[in-house]
Amino acid sequence: MSITREEILQIANLARLRLTDSESEALSHDLSQILEYVDTLASLQGPEGERVALGPPEAPERPADQIPPDPMAHPPAGFAPEFKDGFFVVPSPPSLGESDDPGGSR
Amino acid sequence: MSDIASIAEAVRSGQVDSTEPARAAVARLHEQNGGPQGLNAFLAALSSAEAAALEVTGDPGRLRGVPIAVKDNMTTVGFPTTCGSKILEGYQSPYEATVVRRLREEGATIVGKTNLDEFAMGSSTENSAYGPVRNPRDPARVPGGSSGGSAAAVAAGIVPGALGSDTGGSVRQPASFCGVVGIKPTYGRVSRYGLVAFASSLDQVGMFGSTVADAAELLQVVAGHDPRDSTSVDRLVPDFSDERDTGAEGLVVGVPTQYFGDALEAGVQARCRAALDALEARGSRIREVSLPNTPYALSAYYVIAMAEASSNLSRFDGVRYGLRDSAGEDLGAMYERTRTAGFGPEVKRRILLGTFALTAGYHDQYYGRAQRARSLVSTDFETAFGEGVDVLFTPTSPTVAFPLGERVEDPLQMYLADVFTVTANLAGLPAISVPVGTSDGLPVGGQLIAPKWGESTLFRAAFALEGAMENRDRDE
Lengths: 106, 476
Hints:
The complex is a heterodimer.
Chain A: H1 5-14, H2 21-38, E1 83-84, E2 87-88
Antiparallel strand pairs in A: 1-2
Helix pairs in contact in A: 1-2
Chain B: H1 4-12, H2 20-33, E1 42-45, H3 48-52, E2 67-71, H4 98-105, E3 109-114, H5 148-155, E4 161-165, H6 172-178, E5 181-184, E6 205-209, H7 212-222, E7 252-256, H8 266-281, E8 285-289, H9 297-312, H10 331-342, H11 345-358, H12 363-386, E9 391-395, H13 411-415, H14 422-427, E10 431-439, E11 442-449, H15 455-475
Parallel strand pairs in B: 2-3, 2-4, 7-8, 7-9
Antiparallel strand pairs in B: 1-3, 4-6, 5-6, 5-10, 9-11, 10-11
Helix pairs in contact in B: 9-11, 9-12
């Protein structure tokens, strides 16, 4: 299995990453090499329909009661890039255009 | 006085002041960590002034005064949590991981946070945004990874014990490369609350010590149900120290033929065979077994781990924490700019591969088959243990520590370093790496794997192996 530079750019778009030309070239080579190795899975023996339960090998127990969150050592303003009036502040989504609020959209 | 039990006993008996071991550890840390030839094992640490002002208060716990290091992908109050990434540079978590809290409650002093491959993605600790870690046994070589900083800190004698995380061998492989003991418990044995997620169906917190007893002591302290982690299981935690003198007599040790093939370095093969001979001489029965689906394990592991990573790391987008690079653009552009600037090359590679494996056109071809392989690998183990084998013995890694820079440009070669360790993660089994000698002066680790929840059996075998190797070294 080889993966083209165009496919790499498409996946990067899905993963919200920007790649330079040289990065996409190098990644096309690396990922093709890895996928070639991973293609050993195609020779798996056994019934085609056999599937596994996703997740951990043993179903975990869930706590019966709601667990209150840890008290925070410091509030979100202490770790968020921008926080105001109880909200994480972000730039406007593309479809909404520029916000009148200098603090951005919420 | 370099092991946990001796330090704890010296503090308990009043032989040394309760803050003295941590002060000494901090002094060693600052002496060995920095500079061009320094280990670079720590990303954050107590300063000498902070160490001098330390006070150990509260009830005497079983780790009172013992200095411990914590891998920098577990949240701590008082130290930043960076995951070795620029995207979390300087990030101060508002809460502490359960494993860290439990260590502190037993009186341990956290002296610093250890370097790692970015978001625990790597096998050499060369992928850290803050530079590679050097192996204390040979500074020109890697310490293994991704918990290379924790392994190096213990191997260098800076701390007697450390926490790491193990998604595909990230505790056991560096333990092997650095000549220390490293354990990955059963999936669900230890809380992951506060462990920054890489691949949630595989991640587990692990422990390093210079002896099996130290690794057992750390696991004893942090193990047990945590209602804050829905994957932790409410199950009795046995007293692992009970296994210290049980011995190797009658232990049935399975040796999977698939782990002793051509890929194994001759020196590693020789040390592992010698370790098996030593166990046999002490009364263990060695039996060859087959785990026929082993050849699919590494492929399955990387597909599953990368798919889960691509999902887990989507939270790093500049909104709630860490780096933000908005440069006046809209929200979508901010996501892209932040992630592009914040993630390193290996993390991007894995996110892209994981995203690819989950796309509609390829999901069944890769992710679906990988899950099927995972099931078959688990069944192989169940069959072996069901036929009377108590533990399995394998090499931890096919090679000894390789030179810095040797594999960093070849991701596939780097991934092959995990070929013997990923199977225990796929099956959720407990496994431990114990030093079994050296090859060309570099440490070799032997891996023991036990059935699910079989840590007592695992420690019985590990204590026996450690004792057998000590006796053999003495005889030689």
